[in-house]
Each structure stands twice: as C-alpha cells, then as structure tokens.
Amino acid sequence: MSAAKAKVSASSGRRLPYGALMWLFATLLIFGVGQQTVTLHDQEKFTGDFDFTVKQVEGENSLIFSLTAGTYLYGVTPEVILPTPTGSFSRGDETAPQVARALFDTLDSITEITIEARTITVVYGSDMEAEQVRSRLRRPVNNAVANDRGTITAEVSGTAEKTILFSTSDDRFRYAQYQPALVESIEDYDSRAAAEAGSDLARFIVAESRPVQSLRLEPTRLVVGYAEGTAIEPFARNLREILNDFHPRASLAPHLWLLTVAPEIIPPLLAIAVEPLETGLPLFLFTLLMVAVESGIFFVAREGKKNLLIHLVHIASVFLLFWSIFGHEPLWDAILHAIFPTSAQLVHPQGTVIDFTAQHLELVLTSSIYIISVGLFLGVMVTRDNFREFLPLVNNLVNSGQTVPTLAIVAIMGPIIGLGFMPAVVALIAYGLLPVVRNTIAGIESVSVSIVDSARGMGMTSQQILLRTELPIASRIIMAGIRTSMVINIGTATLGAFVGSGGLGIPIASGLSMTVDAFILLGAIPAALLAILTDYVLGRLEVVLTPRGLLIET
Amino acid sequence: MIEFKDVIKEYPNGFRAVDDLNLTVHDGEICVLIGPSGCGKTTALRMVNRLIDVTRGEILIDGQPNDEFEPEVLRRKIGYAIQQIGLLPHMTIRDNVAIVPRLLDWDEERIRQRVDLLLDMVGIDPSIHGDKYPRQLSGGQQQRVGVARALGADPPIMLMDEPFGAVDPITRAILQEEFLQIQQEVGKTIIFVTHDIDEAIYMGDRIALLRTGRLVQYDTPDDLLAMPRDDFVREFVGADRSLKRLHLISVKDSMMNNVPCCEDDATLEEVEACLERHRSDSAFVVDGGNGKLLGWVERTALAESGSLAEAMRHAPAASIAVPEDATAREALSVLLSHSFDVTPVIDAEGVLTGGVSIQRLQDLVEAPGIHAAMQRERGR
Questions:
Q1: pLDDT of residue B142
Q2: Do B103 and A554 count as a contact with CB atoms less than 8 A apart?
Q3: Chain centroid to CA A224: how far?
Q4: Nearest residue of A to residue B133 by CA position?
Q5: Can you tell me whether residue A160 is helix, strand or coil?
Q6: C-alpha distances in Å from residue A334, one per residue of A250, A281, A331, A348, B339
Q7: What are phi and psi of B222, to 5 degrees?
Q8: pLDDT digits over A30-58, tens only?
C-alpha cells in the first residue's frame, strides 16, 4: 500500500504544470499577434460603404471630397451624424428637413413634428383618430428611415395632446444614412512637409499620393491641392481608393469580446503603455493571469481539492479563450484572406462570427436541455421494473430518430411547425436523443445486480436506490452519452440554417449558394472549433462529475 | 427469534422454491441453511427481509409477522451480507458502513463512532482504510467491510448469504474464525446460507438441510453427522462424515490421561516395565523435572542400547504431538502420519498431558450422544 502511495507522489512530482505552460504559450502568441499591424481585406464590408462626391474648385488646383456615406466601424457603433437638423418644426417652416416635409405632405392635420436622434414625434389635429394617423404615417416614416424598418415602434401619447411617438431601440437607427467622420476636428496642412508631420490620415495620404501638395481635413470633407499638370480623373480615383483603404484601418479597434472594458480600466491602473498590444491587450492580460492561476493551482492548491478546482478553471478559461477568438473579427478577416487571397468577400455581411456562434449555441443548448431531460427520463423509466416492457419500444424509437436523415426531419418539420427556431430544435432533439437514452440505459444496467440487491437489502427505497446508487455509478457512462449527443448536435445544428433557425449554418448556406468559399469556412471553422471546445469542456465535466471511487482502476 | 411457519414460495409457473418450511431460529444462534443448488435456501433467506414475498404461510420475527412492517423499515432492522458483497463503489469504506445508520437518521458523531468501532471489530484499520474506496481493498478486506456494513445499525438479526464465498480457502477460514469471535461478542440471531458442508459444520449452531424447497433435517451439526435421517442427508454430508464429526470434537474432550511414558532419567528396566504395563511397543520420554515431552523410545532400540538416553529419539514436541485445543481430526492426522499407537497431547507449555488412540476415536464417533453434550459444554 505504501509502495503504491510512494509511486503516486513520485509521478506527480515529475509532472509538469502543463496548464500554465499552455497559457504561457497562448500569451506569447497573442503578444506576437498584438505586435502586428492588422490590415483588413474584406472589400465589401470595410470599404464599399465609403462614398465621396468630388468637386473641382474653379480656377484653383483643388478638389473637394465630401464623405457622403459609410457604415462600418468594427462592431463599434459610429456616432450618428444626422444629415437632417434636429428640432421641432411646424407646418410651413422654411428650415424643415426633407423628412418632416414629407410627413407634413402626407397628412394635413399634422401640426408639429419633432426630430431627435432616435425619435420622431408627431402632433396632429383633433379631427383624426390616433389609429388612423399611425397607420397613415407608418409607411412614410419607414421610408424616411430606410434601413431599420423592423425596429420602429409607434406609440400614441397618453397625455391630452394628440401625439404619436415613433421610436427605435436600435443603435443603428438613422434617418437616411449617417456619415462617419474622417477626422474629429479640422486639420490644415499647407505643404507636404507639414502633412508628413501631421495626423495618421494626413501622413497616409501624402505617402500614397505624389501629386498632393496641400490638404485640409474636415469631419466629412477633404480638400486637396494638387501639383500643376496633374490628370484630374486618375488622381481623384486614386485618392478615393486611398481614403477607402485608410478609413477602415484608421478605425481599427479590433473588438475582443472578452473584457471589452478592460483597456480603459487596466492600462491606467497598471500604468503601462498599451500601444503595441492594442489589438489584443485584454486577451493578453487574461492569458497572463491564467499562467499565474494555473501555476498557483499546480504548486499551491492541496491535493484533494486540486482536481475539481483545476477542472473548473480549465473549463471556464478555455471557454473564454475560444469565445475571444470567435469575437475577433480582424482575425477571421486575416485567416480567410490568407486562405482565399483573391476573394473580395471575407466576413459575412449579416453578422459577426460571435453573432452566429451565439445563435448556434442557443440552438444547441435549447435542444440539448430537452435531449438531456427527456433522454434521462426515458432511460430511467424503462429501466424501472414497472416499465421495463417498454425498453424495446423506446430503443426502436430513438434508433429510428437517428436513422432518418436530419435534413429530412428538418424538411418534414418545416411544413408542420413552420420555419424558424423551433423546427430545428425539434429535429435536433429527435436526432440527439439516441446517445443519451442508450447510455442512460447502458449505465444503469451496468450497475451490478448484487449492488442493487444489497442496497435494497439494507433498506433503501427505490428512489434512494436510483439516486444514491444507480445514477452515481452510471454517471460516467451517462455523461459520455450527453457528450456524444452534444458534439453531434453542434454539427447537425448547421443544417438549421435551411429552415431559418440561424446559427453557423447561415454563412455555410449563403457561401454555398453565392459560391463564396470564405463564407463556408467562416461557418465551418467556428462550428468545428465549437465542437472541439464542447467535447473538451464536457470531457472535463465528466471527470468532475464522476464519483472518485469509480475513477480508481482495479 | 425467527420462525418460519408453513412458508411456501410458489412462482406463477407453479414452481415451488420453498415448500412448507417450518423452522425456528433461536436468539443468538447461527442457523445454517444448506442444500444443493436450487434447494430454496437463498429464497428462504430473502423472504425474511421481504426481498422475496411469501406466497403462503408467515415468517415471525420475535413473534411478529414480518409483513406487518414496511419492507424498507424491516430491512433496516436486519443486517444483510451477500457473497458478492455489493459494496457501493462510489462511496468510501466509511460511507459504506454508514449506509444503514444514515438511512435511520443517526447523528453524524454517533455514526462516526459506530463505523470506527465496527471496522476495528472486523479487523480493518479505519484510519488507514476508512477513506479508501472499495476497489482499493482486497477481496478479503471487502468481505470484512461487508460484514461490518451488515452490522451497521446493530441489528438483532443478520442474514448472510454465503458471505465468505468469494475468497480463497485460507482467507475464508480466517474470516470464519474471526466471525465466530465477533458473534461471541455480539450474539446476533443469524441465518447463514452456504453450500459448503464444512463451513456449515464449523459455523452453525444448527443446520437446516433443504432439498427442492423442503426441509430434510434440522439438527445440530453433530447430530446431523451422527444421525443422518436418510440417504440424501448421508450422501450430502459426505462419506467422510465421521472425519467431520472429529472436527467438532476437541482433543481435550477425547484424550485419555493414561499413556505409556517415562521420565528421561529412568533406567532401562523401568522403561521395559512401562511398555509391558501398557502393552505397547513405544513410550514417550518426558523431562523428569518439568514434564515436557522430549521424544520417544521404541522397544527394539532398548535391547541394543546401554541407557535410555542412548535409545530414545529426540524430536520437537510440535512435530509429534497435538496441542490440547486442537480438534480430534488433527489428532487423527498425526496418528496416521506417525507409527505410534497413541498421539501424545501437550498443553501450552509443552507438558505431556495425555494421548489420543485410534480406538478412543472410534468409540467417540460411534456414541453420538456424548458429543452433542460436549458441543453444548463448549458453550457455543
């Protein structure tokens, strides 16, 4: 006995703190990545939306670029710059913007319109019913705010005054389109030399374009002076490209989902310069912290408590690491650009990877909760003496659930339940039930008859036998079933996109239909990573949840 | 006290596992149920704590029918140990022993004390093994824990279904002996199922021999061996039943005090006279001072030797003699392996106290009543 003990402690002495080393590696990797300048390659998403009108100033060698539209800033919502003035306007007001005038024209009884960043307030005369006004105005209001139809609500004011409030909760709500700013404040450069010492954008423009002699940067306007004899057309086109190239890079603030508040809080606290690591600082600090935590657990924590603690920390931290990577849009852009250098479209227009992953997880978790509860229930029921005769029936049912192709189930569910989230969930349940039910039955049947007999002989009730004897002993096998089911589920859930359930199937499906290979990978890679992550997490959980006495090899 | 009254267990297909069983187990007794496979011994046992329901008849526990209790309540009052032990692998040794006390809602301090006491009693050191898991123990250790668990809540009655069946013969013998010692302390009323007649004879105060569900004979081990009721019993207890009976008799009870013996300082003539007196060809030689057995001398050697010291043959006492607390069977074994007419018997100090002859053993085996009386005297 003592020999065995000595062997155990000797082997644990030789073991390396693999956890800490892994995190150290991740830290170094992120440090390395953080040093890189990230260039974005998805043209559709990051450059196409910046539009300029070009005007040549008479008699001077000068062009004026007016920024007219732009939509993207990496998940950071741009400040809304209204092309329309805000304020209250009454009928016949000369200064009333187009939106207000259109509404006045629609209904004669409107007396006053107030436009604010996210709301339009309409006051109307007493000759009309609120419902009438609302239905008449809905279309013009929606037309006026072209992009966000779905999110607008109309509310009749409860006060005596006849007022309807059109409002939205959407941050991206805007009247017509917003304009992103080129610069925050006006910058003026008389010469190339002055510009070379100026802001990032100024430096970039003079570096990229030789003819530029002077420039003036305004939030929505760029005025350039050019050298005598420059061909205007190519010059203007070139400058437009330069601006489009620069803008996304200039606004690059890679959004790390993890600890997004950290950069504002941590650098001042630690008084460290964050410049080179700006792209991944929170993640960098997190992995660094994990090195310390893992080492702490390895060297300090007591043997008995170590197991559970280590497993839980592993689960939580690996999940966070994965999630951060998923949230790193520029990373996806870079990965996909490396694989498809010529593809114009890289990052999916309908949402970020994290959006799709979140939807995907929602789908998987919802169906898994049903699968686990129904599967456990069925498995336990058919192993009770009273219901044992149903065992073959249940076996056949869950077997056939997995035999029918998932896509077929999804397709059948479509007409019955309709499209969307639920039919996908139902299909996933039908498909994922088998491993859970089968393993629950196998686990409970693996408990030897003599153990159950002695438990009963000692005076345990049926319920106590189930909860204190059968389930704990079967737990490992049951957990293995749940793990298998969930991992399969993650793959299968991508098919949900065909019935509109959302998830990582969306980029895959649209990539297939639009023949954009990058989109396919954008769905497939995260789905594969998610499956690996889930397998890892559940594998750890399996160890945590298995009673220690069962882990001992005989 | 456990009473089976006209107990019948009939299965739906008409098979009677237990047929009209009448049996009384007195307090503090070990009643061994034995019989060939399928004789209904395990069924009879399991009906006591209602793991199997009685079809007809009733089982009284201290005069009260056992179906007046909730099955779980009843079972918690009856210790239960089975061959496969059935320790819960996910619980520590301590938790396993504490199962019934926990079911009975004892307070934790009391449980802890009880568990440590029981583990000590069955020879498991709770400080070393208490927090281990069943899989870390050897088969013999697990059996001990199984017994400790059955004793968990100090039940007056214990049901044991071949509790030592799963270990090697040597360990089994040790466990049997230790269990009898424990039983002497705790005095439980025990029904003990086995298929091993030797175990039955060794462990049982009474043996109930069953055949196809019917009780064939219910007697003390000695009476069963001495007076088998029919050919079935005779066959079951085996052709060596006489030997088995010897197993039940101690040397002390069967020895005679008068054996040919002389002191080591005796003259050759004195030795000769002793041999004549006993009509024997050999005599034992003891130390003249303290009476310890030193060896023996043979008649043929006397003629060739000048003195007793020259003629006698020395031998360690343990190799030629049996101790007083050995069984008559061991005495017979020594008798067969040496050429003596009498096996010498020595006490703990090695002093010759008597001897056992083949004639004496024959007399004992032929007279049954004496040994039943002896058995009772032994106070088991």
A1: 92
A2: no
A3: 40
A4: A549
A5: coil
A6: 17, 18, 5, 14, 100
A7: -65, -45
A8: 666 655 555 555 555 443 345 556 666 66
CB within 8 Å of chain B, chain A residues 464-483: 464, 468-469, 472-473
Q: What CATH number labels B2-248?
A: 3.40.50.300
- CA–CA dist A123, A109 (Å, integer): 9
Nearest residue on chain B to A463, alpha-carbon basis? B72
pLDDT tens, A447-480?
Answer: 999 999 999 999 999 999 999 999 999 999 999 9
Q: What is the pLDDT of residue B317?
A: 74
Could you tell me which residue, A470 or B309, shows the higher pLDDT? A470
- Find residue B78's DSSP bridge partners: B157
Residue ranges per structural domain of chain B? 2-248, 252-365
Which range, A137-141, A252-256, A281-285, A441-445, is most confident? A441-445
Distance (Å, rounded) from C-alpha A63 to C-alpha A435? 69
Tell me, what amino acid is at B98?
A
Within 10 angstroms of residue A483's Cβ, the number of other Cβ atoms is 21
Residue found by looking up tokens 């049901």 in the block: B159
pLDDT for A439: 93
Residue B338 parent element (H or E): none
Find tokens 């009260």 and name the residue. B64
ipTM for the predicted complex:
0.76
With 0-12 / 13-18 / 19 or more C-beta atoms within 10 angstroms meaning exposed / middle / buried, residue B86 is buried
C-alpha closest to that of A364 among A492, A454, A508, A247: A492
**Alpha carbon distance A26, A321 (integer Å):** 9
Q: How far apart are CA B16 and CA B284, in angstroms?
A: 61
A463 in B contact zone (CB under 8 Å): no
Does residue B298 contact residue B286 with C-beta atoms inside 8 Å? no
Average pLDDT, chain B: 86
Equal CATH topology for B2-248 and B252-365: no
Residue B28, by phi and psi: left (phi above 0), alpha (psi -120 to 50) or beta? left
pLDDT the model gives residue A150: 47
- Rounded to whole angstroms, the Cα distance separating B187 from B189 reads 7
Chain A environment of B49 (Cβ under 8 Å): 457
Interface mutation vs chain B, best among A454, A463, A543, most B CBs within 10 Å: A454
C-alpha distance from B209 to closest chain A C-alpha (Å):
24
Which of A459, A547, A552 shows the shortest C-beta gap to B76?
A459
A38 DSSP assignment: P
Burial (CB < 10 A; 0-12, 13-18, 19+), residue A14, is exposed
| Alpha-carbon dihedral angle through residues B58, B62, B67, B71, given to the nearest 10 degrees | -130
Look up residue B54 and give its two tokens.
């009685």
Q: How many CB atoms lie within 10 A of CB B13?
A: 5
Supply B80's token pair.
Answer: 């239960």
Q: Check CB contact under 8 Å for B103 and A464.
A: yes
Residue A327: strand pairing partners = none
**B237–chain A nearest CA distance, Å:** 29
Domains observed in chain A: 17-38+255-326 (no CATH), 43-76+179-250 (3.30.1370.70), 87-168 (3.40.109), 344-551 (1.10.3720.10)
CB-CB: which of B128, B135, B152 is closest to A552?
Answer: B135
**B356 Cβ contact partners less than 8 Å away, ≥ 6 residues apart:** B251, B254, B255, B256, B322, B328, B331, B332, B335, B342, B343, B345
Residue with tokens 């049926």, as numbered in its chain: A462
Q: Regarding predicted confidence, which is higher, A59 or B35? A: B35
CATH topology of domain B252-365: CBS-domain (3.10.580)
C-beta of residue A461 within 8 angstroms of C-beta of residue A504: no
Residue A178 is encoded by which pair of tokens?
Answer: 């917003």
- Band (pLDDT 50/70/90 cuts) for residue A171 is very low
